[in-house]
Structures are given as C-alpha cells and as structure tokens.
Amino acid sequence: MNAALDVIGKAGLPRRLMIDASHANSGKDHTRQPGVASAIAEQIAEGQAGIIGVMLESFIVEGAQKLSDPAALTYGQSITDKCMGWETTEHVLTQLAESVRQRRKSTD
Fold this sequence. Notes:
Elements: H1 2-10, E1 17-20, H2 33-45, E2 51-55, E3 61-64, E4 77-78, H3 86-107
Parallel strand pairs: 1-2, 3-4
C-alpha cells in the first residue's frame, strides 16, 4: 500500500488509491471479497488517508449465470463476473462506512 502511494507521490500525483476488492485481490473468488474489504476497512480505521475508494463485484443475487437461454435467467444475477449478493454487500458497506467514521474521528 505505502509503496504504491510512494510511486504515485513521486509521479507528482495526489497520494490516493481506489482498491479493487475483487479480481486479483480476492483471487477472482467473490466469496473472498468480504475478507479483502475487511482488511481495507482496518487500514482505513487505523487512519490510512490514501484509500479513497473500494471497488466491489456486487449484484442482487450472489454468483453468476450463463447467458444461454434468456428466458431462464435469474433476475438480479450477473451474467459476467461472479458477484457478492446484496446481503453480503450490505454488511461490507456497513463495515467500510464504520471504518471511515473511525478515521474521521482520529483526524478531528
């Protein structure tokens, strides 16, 4: 994290990162995204100001489906990458929001 922020700073850019909790950081396993997000939330709560956002793979229904028969599709489920379902997403967003509140308290 700090190494990436240093590279950005040396390039003359603001030391800010948006972290993708999916793809490589979760091994492309949507069920691991909450753990990745939790690690990000911990850094935010500890005062890491360089984290400005988090990208999540999320949809209403967990998982993904193939676009083979449009009539058989499940409403609210991805046809591309596997995603966390809404209930898991709610929990992750609540945890991230709390970490931001903690960071704000420590910088006041």
